Amino acid sequence: DAKTTQPPSMDCAEGRAANLPCNHSTISGNEYVYWYRQIHSQGPQYIIHGLKNNETNEMASLIITEDRKSSTLILPHATLRDTAVYYCIAAQKLVFGQGTRLTINP
Amino acid sequence: SAVISQKPSRDICQRGTSLTIQCQVDSQVTMMFWYRQQPGQSLTLIATANQGSEATYESGFVIDKFPISRPNLTFSTLTVSNMSPEDSSIYLCSVRPGTANEKLFFGSGTQLSVL
Fold first, then answer.
1. Do B104 and A46 touch (CB under 8 A)?
2. Considering only CA atoms, which of B32, B30, B21, B52 is closest in space to residue B106?
3. Do A94 and B106 count as a contact with CB atoms less than 8 A apart?
4. β-strand partners of A62
5. pLDDT for B44-92, tens place per residue?
6. Is residue A50 less than 8 Å (CB to CB) from chain B?
7. Do A32 and B92 touch (CB under 8 A)?
8. Edge-to-edge strand order for the sheet containing A70-75?
9. pLDDT tens digit sequence for A57-86
10. How far apart are CA B25 and CA A95, in angstroms?
């Protein structure tokens, strides 16, 4: 399983795009990149995942570099409800790191 | 998708007792997992619940302390045995409905406090 590195915390203004980086330099060819978020003590919520192509859904966009060693989760128009801990995972076995605590400010 | 019902949602237990947490899924799923989240920490994978055979435990977790059952493709239980205050955590059930690269779905968790 690839190890992931994320900044411990980030701030973003409401209405702006939130760009959350993740480094997964040891990722292997068949390992997907997954993003989840956790609000307070609720169960983690799936956001998006991808292998090597950029992905977009109703929640977010995922940009994966060509060498697959890093990725960025983009929340295009952040709202206060997007305040949460965001986890980037690169593996079939979903082992969670410490994540990024994203705070959206009014 | 998969809808997960986890019971109990919270409990307060005495030291030395055991608690069994149930996880029920509304459809058959390939894989089921149990996680622990200690206060202020990230999620830690306890084990993979295997249908019809012994669970596969991660490093640091043993069957005597966390026995797991999975009698069919929609149900699993996790028991926290001989509890101590250090076992106070949120315990989460998660499922992967299909292939190995498919996303996980999570239950809402069981908040356990041990006095």
1. yes
2. B32
3. no
4. A55, A73
5. 999 999 998 899 999 999 999 999 999 999 999 999 999 999 999 999 9
6. no
7. no
8. A18-23, A70-75, A61-64, A55-56
9. 999 999 999 999 999 999 999 999 999 999
10. 22
> Coil, strand or helix: which one is B115?
coil
B5, closest residue in chain A (CA to CA): A43
For residues A44 and A37, the answer to whether their CB atoms sit within 8 Å is yes
Instruction: State chain B's maximal CA–CA distance in angstroms.
Output: 41
Contacts of B94 (CB under 8 A, 6+ apart): A43, A44, A94, B4, B32, B33, B34, B35, B104, B105, B106, B107
Pick the closest to residue B5 from B109, B91, B104 (CA basis). Answer: B109
Q: How many residues does chain B have?
A: 115
Give A15's contacts (C-beta < 8 A, 6+ positions apart): A77, A78, A79
Quick one: tokens of A83?
């305040």
B23 with B107: CB under 8 angstroms?
yes
